[in-house]
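User: Reviewer 2 asked us to show a designed sequence for the structure in our supplementary figure. I'm pasting the structure tokens here. Could you produce the per-position amino acids so we can include them in the response letter?
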């Protein structure tokens, strides 16, 4: 059995070793050294070149190295009948929850305000509030949203979440569906986006949504760049409707050097690094799915292509 590995960001040597340690008979081929495409049974990919997977005539499964599969689904040549599985992994989940906590703590303790004051050499104290005074709203309560909600609760923050279907997470008020979005947004100190990019969620971070947030709320977008209407964010920051934003994902990545977000005093930019999986941990899922493929059992974490996630 041969697996094709293709990712511009993940380490092929570490991945090959982690896979081969568990499945010594697995042949791992690293893009662009594909060899005979007809010999490849499955592919482990992140941002593969469009059209690559369509060139593999005997492909039986696609394993995404990312939790989000929007870029794969955007490729019109993606083989329509090959099962697509997304990454669900404890190391990825933990790194996302850690990143969410980091930015919520930063806003809770007003570091964005102190950074602006430092630029003016201004000594002004904002007395710390208890964590319960900061209410965090999570758009998306899936694998990553749920883990983030639990970590935030453990630190004493107020937490509410919004998803398609209602959730039962201890200490977290759950809102479901478009009708409950306005009530979810009321009273939030920090809004964190952890949604998948689908036709329903594209552009969801827009002026109408910002208008429902309390004046001076902060935004953290860790989902996808296309969730955000960029001009609406700039207007909301200029008017003070939003106090600050942290953006890890962008409509165009890498974010072009001339993009105004790089220099905006109220925006923190990180280069799509909120969460990555560690091969040593994440290889477990890939190997389990290869075993299932070999024995004809159902694959884990199959993407519902019609739903888009
Ligand atoms: P997931 O387990 O599939 O969870 C997605 C959540 O979004 C679910 O709670 C789902 O609701 C909700 N949702 C989807 N469409 C919705 C809609 N139209 N209205 C309301 N709620 C909706 O996904 P995940 O593993 O948590 O990952 C989420 C996203 O994070 C990924 O798709 C990716 O875009 C992003 N991500 C970013 C990074 C980074 O480094 N920046 C890293 C990893 C992932 P239901 O539960 O009701 O279905
Ligand atoms: C990263 O963005 C992922 O989807 O895992």
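Assistant: Here is a per-position design you can include in the supplement:
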């Amino acid at each position: 059995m041969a697996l094709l590995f293709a990712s511009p960001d993940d380490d092929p040597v570490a991945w090959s070793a982690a896979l081969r340690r568990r499945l010594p008979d697995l042949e791992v081929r690293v893009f662009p050294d594909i060899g005979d495409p007809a010999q490849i049974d499955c592919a482990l990919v992140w941002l593969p070149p469009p059209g690559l997977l369509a060139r593999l005539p005997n492909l039986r499964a696609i394993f995404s190295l990312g939790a989000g599969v929007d870029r794969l689904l955007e490729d019109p040549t993606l083989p329509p009948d090959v099962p697509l599985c997304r990454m669900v992994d404890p190391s990825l989940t933990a790194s996302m929850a850690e990143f969410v906590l980091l930015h919520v703590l930063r806003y809770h303790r007003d570091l964005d305000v102190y950074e602006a004051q430092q630029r003016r050499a201004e000594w002004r104290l904002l007395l710390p509030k208890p964590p319960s005074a900061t209410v965090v709203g999570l758009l998306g309560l899936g694998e990553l949203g749920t883990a983030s909600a639990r970590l935030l609760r453990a630190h004493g923050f107020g937490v509410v979440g919004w998803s398609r279907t209602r959730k039962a997470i201890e200490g977290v008020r759950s809102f479901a569906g478009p009708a409950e979005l306005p009530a979810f947004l009321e009273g939030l100190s920090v809004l964190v986006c952890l949604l998948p990019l689908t036709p329903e969620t594209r552009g969801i971070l827009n002026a109408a949504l910002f208008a429902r947030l309390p004046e001076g709320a902060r935004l953290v977008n860790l989902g996808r760049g296309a969730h955000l209407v960029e001009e609406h964010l700039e207007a909301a920051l200029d008017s003070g409707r939003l106090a600050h934003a942290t953006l890890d994902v962008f409509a165009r990545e890498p974010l072009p050097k001339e993009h105004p977000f790089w220099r905006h005093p109220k925006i923190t930019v990180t280069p799509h690094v909120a969460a990555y999986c560690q091969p040593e941990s994440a290889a477990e899922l890939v190997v389990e799915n290869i075993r299932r493929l070999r024995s004809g059992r159902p694959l884990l974490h199959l993407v519902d292509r019609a739903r888009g996630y």
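For the response letter, you might also mention the following. The domain at 90-269 is CATH 3.40.50.720 (Rossmann fold). The chain has two domains: 2-89+277-295, 90-269.
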